[in-house]
TrEMBL record:
InterPro entries, per database record: Beta-prop_EML-like_2nd (IPR055442), WD40/YVTN_repeat-like_dom_sf (IPR015943), WD40_repeat_dom_sf (IPR036322), WD40_rpt (IPR001680), WD_repeat_EMAP (IPR050630)
Protein name as catalogued: EML-like second beta-propeller domain-containing protein
Superkingdom of origin organism: Eukaryota
Ranges in a coiled coil: none
Length: 291
């Protein structure tokens, strides 16, 4: 892709050229992290953003100023996922070292580790906090979903307890609630990412074949009916609904693209209308021109 186009998310209207939009505008803020970033998460109150790095470090920034509030490196391998609990208290950091570390943000910028999850069989793929911030579910590279107490890290194995937990978010590709997202004859690695709407009615997935699929949630029957959408080459690496469930944004791997789609609620359920995409290589070129 040799051009980068911008779209108004609400209308899907094409803006002629990104540079024409940016001409005469000032870059509001930027920050150099020093190392490649792997994952990021905003606090529920919107005051902070936590970023996990490829070298095992994580950084917490203040959103308004992008000043570093705190940073820590307790692991040597890449941070795979990072989350802030719904009550804005706990920071969970999942790494390639088969660990999830917990930090209490209310204790200040020292970011001393107050607990960690034990007995994780492989590297962390996705994490989600419960609505009451007492539990966290962890999806691992062994394709096993585990539930742990926060912040002690004790694993919960009683199905009756797990069944009663209400999750604040759901990005896991594993579990009885999402068994229907896996296609027939699927290799364990075929589905890469998922996200449930804030309303809890639909789940969207991204897979190794460049497909974005939309299912009802929960999705408890194998090979569930779904709607599928094309737009990426191989490997959709991540996918998320916007805060109001109006849009879904997906990121590609080999194609280095971000795509945005408008979510339309109809009598027969939710559908997507592709709004546009942009190339990360073109974004880098634009960023270098603005410096």
């Amino acid at each position: 892709m040799k051009r980068c186009r911008a779209f108004q998310l609400e209308t899907g209207q094409l803006i002629e050229c990104v540079r024409s939009v940016c001409r005469g505008k000032k870059l509001v803020n930027k920050v150099s992290l020093g190392h490649p970033a792997r994952c990021a998460a905003y606090s529920p109150d919107g005051e902070m953003v936590a970023i996990g790095m490829r070298n095992g470090e994580f950084i917490v920034l203040l959103v308004n100023s992008l000043k570093v509030w705190g940073k820590k490196r307790d692991r040597k391998s890449a941070i795979q996922d990072i989350r802030i609990s719904p009550d804005n208290r706990f920071l969970a950091v999942g790494s390639q070292e088969h660990t999830v570390d917990f930090y209490d943000l209310t204790q200040g910028t020292t970011l001393n580790r107050i607990g960690y999850c034990k007995d994780i069989a492989s590297f962390v793929i996705q994490m989600d906090f419960s609505a009451d911030s007492r539990y966290i579910q962890v999806s691992t590279g062994a394709y096993k979903r585990q539930v742990h107490e926060v912040p002690l890290g004790k694993q919960i194995t009683d199905p009756a307890v797990i069944e009663k937990i209400t999750w604040a978010t759901w990005t896991s590709i594993l579990g009885d609630e999402v068994i229907g997202i896996w296609p027939r004859n699927a290799d364990k690695a075929d589905v890469n990412c998922a996200c449930v709407t804030h309303a809890g009615l639909n789940i969207v997935t991204g897979d190794d074949f460049g497909l974005v699929k939309l299912f009802d949630f929960p999705c408890t029957e194998k090979f569930a009916k779904h709607k599928r959408y094309f737009g990426h080459s191989a490997h959709v690496t991540n996918i998320r609904f916007s805060h109001d469930d109006k849009f879904v944004v997906s990121t590609g791997g080999d194609d280095c693209r971000q795509r945005a789609a408008l979510c339309c609620q109809k009598a027969k359920g939710m559908t997507f209308q592709l709004l546009g995409s942009c190339s990360c290589s073109q974004q880098r070129k634009l960023n270098s021109n603005s410096e």
